[in-house]
Task: inverse folding
């Protein structure tokens, strides 16, 4: 059975990706052991679906469009840097958000509930809006965490004005996120 690896996310505007890429570049001297996320693929995941059988793609797309109907744009603001897991050795480095509207949590809950009913897995993790900057692949440079947490992230405000259902795939040896459906949020 053919499947696609999919997720639903808010894409980031270019100026936010530029700010986050600058953070990655400033950390470059102490970043061995880290695989940085390409700024063009940075996003805020609302719902990770994972393996999506081709036979369900049409239904998943319709459900996506129904749930996101009538969602209006909202402002988000970059917050501080952090890592997962919160205790122990970092595996994921991220940029957080602040002043997150409650409707973003409700939208994530609604997507989660709808897709669980279609047989998709619920990770059981509470929705934690963040932007993944990098993944730790091997032991970090001894100065990395000190340098990382010394960085001040510009608390830039931006508007979430689109939600996209993506396919994550490899083409010509490169990871790509291909839009399957897009919802432009109406004011």
Result:
């Amino acid at each position: 059975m053919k499947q696609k690896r999919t997720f639903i996310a808010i894409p980031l505007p270019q100026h936010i990706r530029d700010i986050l890429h600058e953070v990655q570049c400033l950390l470059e001297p102490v970043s061995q052991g880290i695989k940085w996320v390409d700024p063009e693929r940075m996003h805020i995941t609302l719902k990770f679906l994972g393996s999506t059988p081709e036979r369900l793609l049409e239904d998943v797309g319709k459900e996506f469009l129904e749930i996101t109907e009538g969602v209006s744009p909202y402002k988000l603001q970059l917050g501080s840097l952090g890592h997962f897991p919160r205790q122990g050795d970092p595996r994921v480095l991220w940029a957080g958000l602040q002043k997150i509207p409650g409707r973003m949590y409700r939208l994530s809950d609604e997507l989660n509930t709808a897709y669980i009913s279609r047989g998709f897995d619920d990770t059981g993790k509470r929705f934690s809006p963040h932007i993944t900057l990098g993944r730790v692949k091997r032991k970090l440079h001894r100065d990395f965490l000190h340098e990382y947490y010394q960085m001040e992230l510009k608390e830039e405000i931006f508007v979430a004005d689109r939600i996209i259902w993506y396919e994550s795939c490899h083409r010509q040896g490169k990871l790509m996120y291909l839009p399957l459906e897009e919802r432009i949020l109406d004011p």
User: Anything to note?
Assistant: The CA atoms of residues 3 and 53 lie 4 Å apart.
